[in-house]
Amino acid sequence: MIKKLVGLSVLALTVSIATSLPADASNRTRVCKPATVGVFSNRIHVRCESINGQGYTEDIKYYAMKLDDSPQVQATLQLLLMAKANNRELSINFDESDYNSIPGCQGSNCRRLRWASMR
């Protein structure tokens, strides 16, 4: 009986861990308090303040979106500027492995911004 309960507990834990993992490991979300917001000829970007105790926020500070006529870029820029002006935090989603698709985004400190939302 005890072996059966232990087996069921291990199975439940395994299912719980498996269902909590993101489908795409490169898809990450973090808290971002905008330090700077920039608009360039080829991209918009935000530099997020570092978060104590979270090392990756020290290394990757810039999150960028390719500048085009997309309504998402315009809306994202407005949201970034509003958060900066009002000293508010955002949730931002980024592609941990993608910096090549954004002109001017460096692999050492920048990632492609997928979306942002106000906290």
3D architecture notes:
There is one protein chain. Strands 1-5-6-4-3-2 form a six-stranded mixed beta sheet. It is 32% helix and 32% strand. A hairpin with a 3-residue loop joins strand 2 (34-39) and strand 3. The chain is built from three helices and six strands. Residues 3-22 have low confidence and may be disordered. The protein has 119 residues and is of the alpha+beta class.
How widely separated are the two ends? 48 Å
Strand content: 25-35%
Rg, alpha carbons = 18 Å
Question: How helix-rich are the residues, as a percent range?
Answer: 25-40%
Low-confidence stretches: 3-22
Quick check: average pLDDT? 80
Instruction: Name the shape in a single word.
Output: globular
Keywords:
119 residues, six-stranded mixed beta sheet, 3 helices, globular
Helices and strands, with pairings:
Blueprint (H helix, E strand, L loop, with lengths): L1 H19 L6 E6 L1 E6 L3 E6 L7 H4 L2 E5 L4 H15 L4 E6 L14 E9 L1
Parallel strand pairs: 4-6
Antiparallel strand pairs: 1-5, 2-3, 3-4, 5-6
Provide a compact summary of the structure.
The chain has 119 residues and is α+β, with helices and mostly antiparallel strands. The protein has helices spanning 2-20, 56-59, 71-85, and strands spanning 27-32, 34-39, 43-48, 62-66, 90-95, 110-118.
